[in-house]
Design a protein that fits this description.
By secondary structure, the protein is an alpha/beta fold. About 30% of the residues lie in helices and about 20% in strands. It has helices spanning about 15-25, 45-55, 65-70, 80-95, 100-105, 145-150, 220-230, 235-245, 255-260, 335-350, 365-375, 390-400, 415-425, 430-440, 460-470, 535-550; strands spanning about 1-5, 30-35, 55-60, 115-120, 120-125, 155-160, 165-170, 180-185, 200-205, 210-215, 265, 295, 305-310, 355, 380-385, 405-410, 445-450, 475-480, 505, 510, 525-530. Belongs to the metallophosphoesterase superfamily. YfcE family.
């Protein structure tokens, strides 16, 4: 058997390179190969040169070696985003200025690919892919893209690097053969996985067969980070070394890969939504933490607000209900055990607000116990039509008085019964006002949302004036547009392609937005069934958001149900 250790992307990180040499030898590697990109984000390119030559490492030229060896003005990395290119240029300029004439001359002697037969295996070594030296061969590419790359080679095994993220899989070629593809990762910085380790690959070849193992490699990352800072390179370069998360050259990552990291957006690309009309959410301004990037989750583009549907049955049958609730709707009630589990997950996943809705939540017998449990760990808003505060429910409601972090949100569609009752049923406005007054009398924080339709257009100020006399300040009254979802064919059309996501959970699983939480009428907003963990549901939102954004580069608008 022949064992070959393969690395890529040294990125001026002599500390990781030394560990690779020792670890690969200790694991029985007979040959050591580097697939290129000796310099980049680190501060010590010249320290890499003797380690490669004296360590007996066979080397290919990556795009960095091609660029430096020929005196080009940029790295030719293949980035398209301006922010990515800006950081790449800083790294390249530093590496170019600190690379000796001898090192550059040696780079010019290196091939950009290598092919040979080893132990009966046709082995093809490249930097980016079989298509181009700076091609990013991502694991998430579709089958046609993978096949095009293996077809261009036809080898039994193709090994590459450049993208920085390790993976391995067997891909069927158009001729019916199979190619083992090994992206060996990089030594220079972590693989956006939250670990300080880096990666290389071991390739075992014997009697015409091949197998590969991806190896996590520990090294003196603290020394590498200190070296970067001492050289005056961007702090973001050092932070990636210390945290394991990419903080530069981020836009090049496809949605699937980027959704698994901690950061997804450059701050320069995010508009300021703090002045969004009617927003009651927390201040979700772009964080001033010194980083060039930020997570999507926790921003105004994906608020840390979890919506939870306790049920879908309702005492009303509103003409415009976006989730088609009514007395005849399938109840789909969330049981207490599931509710408690979701609370624990929400805290663990960083949610700060819980919006409890339905249907009419007060049809659920133990709703008050559920709300009390939720307020122990999150700020809670309960959306209710306020018409069921009678008998036992009135007694239960009193238990919520004085509970911190709880708000009741009630819907009123105008300052008088006319528009409200036309859409919600005769007598509903009076009963809603009675419920609102009762909640205020108990000292419960109340706010009101009005859905604007052709029946009540322009009545928002009149509603605010009325409610001020009932103890609800004007700033706690907001108007939201009618949505063309559920029972309504009229109103504002919203979809995942133009609406900021607010993760929503029902008995049917996970949804993009609370206004699209009914599977029957909004299947396009369904993210997955109840078996999907919350962390994965969040990741799917991020991935889908990035996929949609990539189509034309646009950002969605904010539509909040709770405004």
């Amino acid at each position: 058997m022949v064992r070959i250790a393969l690395c890529g992307g040294v990125y001026s990180n002599p500390y990781a390179l030394r560990s690779f040499l020792a670890d690969a030898r200790a694991r029985g590697a007979q040959r050591l190969v580097c697939l290129g990109d000796f310099g980049a984000y680190g501060a010590e390119p010249e320290a890499v040169f003797p380690l490669l030559r004296e360590g007996g490492v066979e080397c290919l030229a990556g795009n960095y070696e091609v660029a430096i060896g020929s005196g080009q003005t940029d790295c030719g990395c293949g980035y398209a985003d301006d922010a990515d290119n800006a950081f790449a240029q800083i790294a390249y300029d530093y590496t170019f200025a600190n690379t000796s004439v001898a090192f550059a001359a040696w780079m010019r002697t290196l091939p950009t690919e290598h092919r040979e037969t080893v132990a009966g295996v046709d082995l093809h070594l490249v930097h980016g892919s079989t298509l181009a030296v700076n091609d990013f061969w991502w694991s998430s590419l579709d089958e046609d893209a993978h096949r095009a790359r293996v077809d261009a080679s036809g080898a039994d095994v193709v090994c590459c690097t450049h993208s920085g993220l390790p993976w391995t899989r067997r891909i069927t070629r158009s001729d019916g053969g199979e190619t083992l593809v090994v992206n060996v990762g990089v030594l220079g910085r972590p693989a956006n996985d939250g670990g300080t380790h880096v990666w290389y690959a071991l390739l075992d070849l014997e009697d015409g067969s091949a197998s590969a193992t991806l190896v996590p490699l520990e090294y003196d990352w603290a020394a590498q980070a200190a070296s970067i800072r001492a050289a005056g390179l961007p702090e973001a370069f050092a932070e990636s070394i210390e945290t394991g998360w990419l903080t530069t050259c981020l836009e090049i990552l496809p949605p699937a890969e980027r959704s698994r990291g901690r950061f997804q957006l450059y701050k320069s690309a995010v508009p300021d939504f703090r002045a969004a009309a009617g927003s009651w959410g927390a201040d979700l301004a772009v964080p001033d933490d010194g980083r060039p990037v930020m997570p999507l989750f926790g921003s105004a583009l994906f608020p840390p607000r979890l919506w939870l549907y306790t049920n879908f049955d309702c005492n009303l049958a509103c003409d415009y209900c976006s989730v088609a609730s009514s007395p005849r709707a399938r109840p789909r009630r969330l049981d207490r055990e599931r509710f408690s589990a979701l609370l624990a997950d929400a805290v663990a996943e960083g949610f700060t607000e819980l919006y409890v809705t339905g249907g009419e939540p007060f049809l659920v017998a133990d709703l008050v116990d559920m709300l009390l449990e939720a307020t122990e760990c999150l700020d809670v808003v309960c959306l209710t039509n306020a018409m069921l505060y009678r008998g036992r429910r009135r007694e239960q409601l009193a238990r919520l008085a004085g509970v911190e972090g709880l708000t009741l949100q009630t819907s009123l569609d105008g300052p008088d019964p006319a528009a409200h009752d036309a859409l919600r049923g005769r007598g509903s406005w009076v009963r809603a006002m009675e419920g609102l007054d009762l909640a205020v009398s108990l000292g419960l924080p109340v706010r009101v949302g009005m859905t604007e339709t052709e029946h009540n257009a322009g009545q928002g100020d009149a509603l605010r004036t009325l409610l001020a006399g009932h103890g609800v300040p004007p700033e706690r009254v907001a108007v939201r547009p009618l949505i063309a979802r559920g029972h309504s064919d009229a109103g504002m059309a919203i979809g995942e392609d133009d609406t900021v996501p607010e993760l929503t959970v029902t008995t049917d699983g996970w949804h993009w937005h609370p206004a699209g939480a009914d599977v029957a009428t909004s299947p396009d907003m369904h993210l997955g069934g109840p078996e999907v963990p919350m962390a994965e549901a969040k990741r799917r939102v991020v991935e889908r958001f990035l996929e949609l954004r990539r189509r034309d580069g646009s950002l969605p608008t904010i539509y909040q149900c709770a405004v």
